[in-house]
Specification:
Cofactor: [4Fe-4S] cluster
Protein name: Adenine DNA glycosylase
Order of helices and strands: HHHHHHHHHHEEEEHEEHEHH
Number of strands: 7
Number of helices: 14
Distance between the termini: 64 Å
CATH class of one domain: Alpha Beta
GO biological process, one term: base-excision repair
Radius of gyration: 27 Å
Helix content: 40-55%
Organism: Oryza brachyantha (malo sina)
Structural class: alpha+beta
Shape: elongated
Function: Adenine glycosylase active on G-A mispairs.
Length: about 375
Amino acid sequence: MLQQTRVPVVVDYYSRWMARWPTVHSLAAATQEEVNEMWAGLGYYRRARFLLEGAKQIIEKGEFPRTASELRRVRGIGDYTAGAIASIAFNEVVPVVDGNVVRVISRLYAIPDNPKESSTVKRFWELTGELVDPSRPGDFNQAMMELGATLCSKTKPGCSQCPVSSHCQALTLSSQNTSLQVTDFPRVVPKAKPRCDFAAVCVVQIAHALDQGVTCTMDMDNLFLLIKRPEEGLLAGLWEFPSVLVSEGKTDAMNRRKEMDKYLRQLLSIDVKRRSSVILREDVGQYVHIFSHIRLTMFVELMILNLEDDAKQLCKEGQDSTKLRFIDENAVESMGLTSGIRKVYNMVKAFKDKRLKEQSQVTTRKRGRGLK
């Protein structure tokens, strides 16, 4: 949880996680969907999948690995996590190198090289390994990470308070040469420009008294359609509202709706024109969601349908009914959706509330004129 997220954000997630799955055995018995829901909001969902797969792998083996080399064989555990677990939990004398440690080492040794290059990364691990306290490796590694996160910060290092400032070559060089600063280390590498994607997102609401057999917690008056994403790739295995990528030149309403209608017809056997009555279909707005490497612009619309067929029949006709789900509004509120999809739902909810308020005001004005 802490690999990509700050401690204040993680605390509540960690507490809920440990309350539900206090042991590796209990986690291994969970489903991927349960894990995804508990993880929702933390991002980088591949980590959640690896946690579950790793727990199952450990249970199959019958014992928890106790060395860094053994831990690296577990699905989802890399050098950093293996070193942290081995040194902190099992007192193995191995280093831990994260972004904070890279900053400390780069300044201690005044390393000007690109910190992203494999040869430089290897050097950081070797140098940190030489420094690890053999009697207290876990404490040492945690101290190094904490030093980088606090005093040895990116932009405002507290060199006057630093316990290792007398050994810091970057500080020495900066005092001898005014053109150099401690913050010049490590070298800042420009991030790659994120790819720009565009998606038509349709929140499909079913206004029809559908068969109760579809789900046991159904609100018969207010159903929403969710689609499960592929098990590989971005946001693998997570649930979302119907969504289809469109090219940048075809983000206008006509082209977006054409692609969405095609998607619903091909994947779910919903023909908006032939098998349903469109009660309402309006654009709600757009929302930009930033991933680490993608800038996704979502064009959101609300479509309320009155289906001619029931949902059970629709599930049978769909190409893969396991990827299709109808849930009520209460389930949407409590379900562990991604932050992007949660934002889309809140946009639609605000849009509907606004429309309802406007209709109420029109009705009130008409009644007022009638009384006169």
